[in-house]
Design a protein that fits this description.
The structure holds two protein chains of two kinds. Chain A has a domain at about 5-240. Chain A contains 13 helices and two strands, in the order ααααααββααααααα. Chain A has helices at about 5-20, 30-55, 60-80, 85-105, 110-130, 130-135, 155-180, 180-200, 205-230, 240-255, 260-275, 280-295, 300-334; strands spanning about 150, 150-155. Chain A has a two-stranded antiparallel sheet. In chain A, helix 2 packs antiparallel against helix 11 and helix 11 (about 260-275) packs antiparallel against helix 12. Chain B is about 35% helix and about 25% strand. In chain B, the strands form two sheets. A six-stranded mixed beta sheet of chain B has the order 6-7-8-3-9-10, with helices on both faces. In chain B, strands 2-1-4-5 form a four-stranded antiparallel beta sheet, with helices on one face. In chain B, helix 3 (about 95-105) packs across helix 5 and helix 3 runs parallel beside helix 6. Classes of the chains: A mainly alpha, B alpha/beta.
C-alpha cells in the first residue's frame, strides 16, 4: 500500500548513520574490507535489478565493474578529469554498453542469454588484457588518485570509506525510488509474464533494454569507486570469475529482495576475510558455508526471512482453524 | 453503425497447414461478438494474428477504420485493444491491487513522468473501483498466485478492463470456471457492455455462455468462416450442426 512506510527504506535510513560511525576505530585493512563490501553491494544491486527484478540472466556484471574502473582510471589518471565527472562518465559508458548488450536479450532468453553475456564478459577481459595502449595490459594502472571532494582530502582510509558510504546511500535511494515507481512494477512484469505484460501495454523492448542498461550503470558506478579504493587495477579482478561471484552474491543474498545485495556482498567479500583466522582452510570453509546456505535457503538469505513470515501467517491460520473446530463438530453432531 | 474492428482476408499458414485461411468479419460499436468452432479450427490463431502475437501470412486488421496490422501487442493495447488469454495470465507475486495498477499504468502519462511520479501512477482509486466491481474486495491485498482459479479468472478479466479499452478480446473466459463464478463473470461482462458501451469479441467452447451473452456469432471451421448470424440463426444452420456433430 502507498500509505505504509516501506521497511526497506527504514533499514536504509537507520543503517546509514550507524555505518558512518561504526568503522571509526577500524585499522586500514578493516576499512578497506568494509569499503569493498559497499562498492560490491552497488554492483550487486545493479545485477539484482537485471536478474532479480526483471529476470534477465546476465553473467557480465563483473565486466561492467571493469568498464567503470578502467574508465575512471583512464580519465582521472591520464586526463586529469575530476572524479565526479569520471564517476558519471563510467556509469554513462556502462549504461550505453548495457543497452547494446540488452539487444540479444530481446531475442534469446534464460541460459542462452547467460551464454551471450558470458561471451561479452570474456571479451571485456581480453580487451583489458591485450589493448595495452588503452588499459596498460597486464600491468594495468597503478597510483590511481583518490579524489578531493569539496576540499575534503579522501586519501586516508576513514574519509574514503565515508565517501563510499555516501555514494552508496545515494545510489541505494535512487534504486529504491526506481523500483517503487511504476517502472519497478513493469520490470517485475517482465520477469513474471512478459507476454501478458505486453498485452497490457508494457513496452517489452524498452523495459528490457532499460533493465540491462540501468543494472549495468550501477556496475559502472561500482567500478568508479573500486579504482580509487584499491588505487591499482589490472585485468584479473574483472575476469569472468568476477561475474560469477557477483551472480552468487545476488542469489545468496536473495534475488529480487531489495536489500539482498548487501547481505550477499557481505558473504562474498567480507566473510572470506573473517574466515582468514582459520588459516589455509578459509576458502574451503567459505565454500562449505555457501553450499549449506544454498541448500537450506535456495531463495537466498532474505528469502528465508520471507519464508519465516509465511510460516508464521500459516500458523496463525491453523490456530484460527483449530479455534473454529468446535463449531464444525457442533454442526456435524446435529 | 461504426465498425470498431474489421478483419479482411486474414490468412496464417504454418508450413503446409492453413490454420487461418481467409477470414473476414467485423465488430460493431457496443456489440458482443462470439467466435465459436471445433477445436483446432483456428480461433486462437486468428486472435493472435489480430493482436500482433503472430504475423499474419496475409490479410488486414482495421481498428476504427485505420490499419493496425503488424503492430506490437503493447502498441495495440495502448490504442485501446485489450485481451485475456486462454490460460490464466496474472502476475502471481503481485497483490490483486498491484496487478490492476500494472494493467493500467502504461496508459498514464509518459515513461519519464511515471518514473518521477507516484508509485501507483495515480491508479489506486481506479483499481479499488475495479476490485469492487468484480467483487474481489476481501482479496485486494492478497498475492494473485494464492487465489482460486475462478478468482484469478475474474482478476484476469478485470485487468483487461482496467485501462477503459474500446475493444476487448476474450479467449475462452469460461474455461474451467465453476457455474457460480461463471454467472458472476457473465453478469460483470454484460454490466460493462451496458454501462460503458465496451465492445467484446469472445472465443468460447461453452455454448450456453456464448449463446446467452453474444448478440451475433461467427462460426469457424478448418480456418474459414462457416456461418454468421444471431445465436438462433446459427444454431439452426445445418452446416454448423454438421461441423459440430459430424455426419
Amino acid at each position: 500500500m502507498t500509505t505504509r512506510f516501506d521497511p526497506n527504506l527504514a533499514v536504509i535510513l537507520v543503517a546509514a548513520p550507524a555505518l558512518w560511525f561504526i568503522p571509526a576505530g577500524f585499522k586500514p585493512y578493516g576499512l578497506y574490507v568494509v569499503s569493498l563490501w559497499l562498492v560490491m553491494s552497488i554492483a550487486a544491486m545493479g545485477l539484482n535489478l537485471t536478474l532479480g527484478y526483471a529476470g534477465l540472466k546476465s553473467l557480465a556484471q563483473g565486466a561492467f565493474v571493469g568498464i567503470g574502473a578502467y574508465a575512471t582510471a583512464v580519465l582521472t589518471k591520464n586526463h586529469g578529469v575530476s572524479w565526479p565527472i569520471a564517476f558519471l562518465s563510467s556509469g554513462g559508458l556502462a549504461f550505453a554498453v548495457g543497452v547494446v548488450l540488452g539487444f540479444p536479450a530481446l531475442r534469446v532468453k534464460f541460459h542462452y542469454l547467460a551464454f551471450v553475456t558470458l561471451a561479452f564478459a570474456m571479451f571485456v577481459y581480453l580487451v583489458a588484457k591485450n589493448e595495452e595502449w588503452l588499459t596498460g595490459g597486464v600491468y594495468g594502472f597503478s597510483n590511481i588518485p583518490r579524489p578531493v571532494i569539496f576540499g575534503v582530502d579522501l586519501s586516508r582510509g576513514l574519509p574514503f570509506y565515508r565517501f563510499v558510504l555516501v555514494v552508496t546511500v545515494v545510489l541505494t535511494l535512487a534504486m529504491w525510488w526506481l523500483l517503487r515507481s511504476p517502472w519497478g512494477r513493469a520490470f517485475l512484469a517482465l520477469r513474471e509474464n512478459w507476454m501478458r505484460a505486453a498485452s497490457l501495454g508494457v513496452d517489452i523492448r524498452t523495459y528490457t533494454l532499460l533493465a540491462f542498461a540501468i543494472g549495468s550503470a550501477w556496475g559502472g558506478f561500482s567500478g568508479a569507486l573500486y579504482a580509487p579504493l584499491v588505487e591499482f587495477i589490472d585485468p584479473a579482478p574483472f575476469a569472468i570469475s568476477a561475474s560469477f561471484v557477483l551472480l552468487l552474491t545476488v542469489v545468496v543474498g536473495g534475488s529480487g529482495f531489495f536489500l539482498g545485495p548487501f547481505v550477499g556482498s557481505f558473504l562474498s567479500f567480507v566473510l572470506p576475510e573473517l574466515l582468514r583466522v582459520t588459516g589455509g582452510w578459509y576458502l574451503l570453509v567459505y565454500a562449505s558455508v555457501v553450499l549449506v546456505l544454498l541448500v537450506i535457503c535456495p531463495t537466498g538469505i532474505l528469502g528465508l526471512v520471507e519464508r519465516g513470515r509465511d510460516h508464521l501467517s500459516q500458523r496463525r491460520a491453523a490456530a484460527m482453524r483449530a479455534a473454529a473446530r468446535p463449531m464444525l463438530e457442533g454442526s456435524e453432531a446435529r | 453503425m461504426t465498425r470498431v474492428l474489421e478483419v479482411k482476408g486474414m490468412k496464417k499458414y504454418f508450413g503446409g497447414i492453413r490454420a487461418v485461411d481467409g477470414v473476414d468479419f467485423h465488430v460493431n460499436q457496443g456489440e458482443i461478438l462470439g467466435i465459436i468452432g471445433p477445436n483446432g479450427c483456428g480461433k486462437s490463431t486468428l486472435f493472435n494474428c489480430i493482436l500482433g502475437q503472430l504475423t499474419p501470412t496475409d490479410g488486414e486488421v482495421l481498428l476504427d477504420g485505420r490499419p493496425v496490422t503488424g503492430l506490437y501487442p503493447s502498441q495495440l493495447n495502448r490504442l485501446g485493444v485489450s485481451r485475456t488469454f486462454q490460460l490464466l495470465q496474472v502476475f502471481p507475486t503481485l497483490s490483486v491491487r498491484e496487478n490492476l495498477i500494472l494493467a493500467g499504468q502504461e496508459h498514464e502519462g509518459t515513461k519519464l513522468s511515471r518514473l518521477f511520479g507516484a508509485s501507483d501512477a495515480g491508479l489506486t482509486a481506479e483499481a479499488n473501483r475495479m476490485i469492487a466491481f468484480f467483487k474481489l474486495e476481501h482479496l485486494a491485498d492478497q498475492k494473485a498466485g494464492g487465489l482460486s482459479y475462478g478468482q484469478q479468472k475474474l482478476l484476469d478479466a478485470a485487468m483487461a478492463f482496467m485501462a477503459g479499452p474500446k475493444l476487448v478480446l476474450l479467449d475462452e473466459p469460461a474455461g474451467g470456471v465453476n457455474l457460480t463464478m461463471l454467472a458472476n463473470l457473465k453478469d460483470r461482462l454484460e454490466a460493462i457492455n451496458r454501462e460503458q458501451g465496451a465492445t467484446f469479441v469472445v472465443i468460447e467452447h461453452n455454448m450456453d455462455f456464448v449463446m446467452s451473452l453474444c448478440s451475433r456469432v461467427v462460426v469457424m471451421a478448418e480456418g474459414k468462416v462457416l456461418a454468421e448470424g444471431t445465436p438462433a440463426e446459427v444454431r439452426a444452420d445445418p452446416a454448423v450442426v454438421e461441423a459440430y456433430l459430424g455426419h
